[in-house]
Design brief:
Blueprint: E1 2-4, E2 34-38, H1 42-45, E3 48-51, E4 54-56, E5 70-72, E6 75-87, E7 90-99, E8 107-112, E9 117-118, E10 121-122, H2 136-140, H3 142-153, E11 160-164, H4 182-195, E12 208-214, H5 218-228, E13 234-240, E14 259-264, E15 275-277, H6 294-301, H7 303-308
Parallel strand pairs: 8-11, 8-12, 12-13, 13-14, 14-15
Antiparallel strand pairs: 1-2, 2-6, 3-6, 4-5, 6-7, 7-11, 9-10
Length: 312
Amino acid sequence: MTTYEYRPNRPAGGPSGPQQGKGPPPPPPTPAAIVVTQKNPAALSGAHSVTNPAVIPHQVSSPPSSFRFQPVSPSADIHEFLFEVKKGSSVFWVGAAVPKGVSDFTRAQVYFHPTVVQNGTVHAADGDYREFKGGWSGSLQRYVAMQGGQFAAAGKRYPMIFPFTTMAALQGGGHNMFTDRPVVTLNGIMDAIRDRTPGATGLPNLTKIGVASFSSGIMSMRRFINDMKSSGLIREVIDFDSPFITIEAKALTPSPGAVSKCYTQHQLAHPPMGWVQVSSDNFKDITAFRSSGLHAQIGWTMYHQAMVTSVI
């Protein structure tokens, strides 16, 4: 178990110290300690090989309809962690994919999965979240290996973090792990990762992060960007096909000081820099996830190339 505690400096008085004839104001309440506990079995937390379908060559601008992606199956050795994060009585869950041999804990990628309820279908129930059972350990936890393997195979040598997000968390407040002390929470998770990574040294101190989301995960990502805005840590924002969703904006997702990119099937007459339009013609030679449609192929096979060209 790793316990990461936050204790603010307590002023002796008001803005200019204790007032004449009055005692100092009471100190602010001490925030609850952040307790991070690793729950995965050794078979996953130890370094092991994962292989995932991906597509090449890497595209940084929209290819013509005659362009064809080629299938690849990159492999990488990663550690898969599952962290229970407690803040007082609140419980949150975070996955992590850590490439074997990582020594850099100043950078991280944060990835947001699609919403767990879609068109009335419940992929993971909020009621199962506290114990991380049902769809959370089934269909949602698979994203750690699926995207984390592509991340590591792209040559990245720093951690990737997967916040598991309930429907209630989309409303913010106490249901969202990043509403309260987001940077401290991230550094606490990085601290737990470092403690479990063989040969790792040095205290974690994030200096920059990238964020990405697939499909309706954009809603969680936008809230995270807002919670992190004052930190200035976000340097990259990547959206995988949220414009495919009818209610979502057909534009890049901004964050101050960050490079934004969108891989999408949605066509714009005048796409901005960073808007990478792809079509079913481009995926004609790709059989992986074909039965799930182009939306799934974009979200599940293009993360590798996004990381090859990442600025983080």
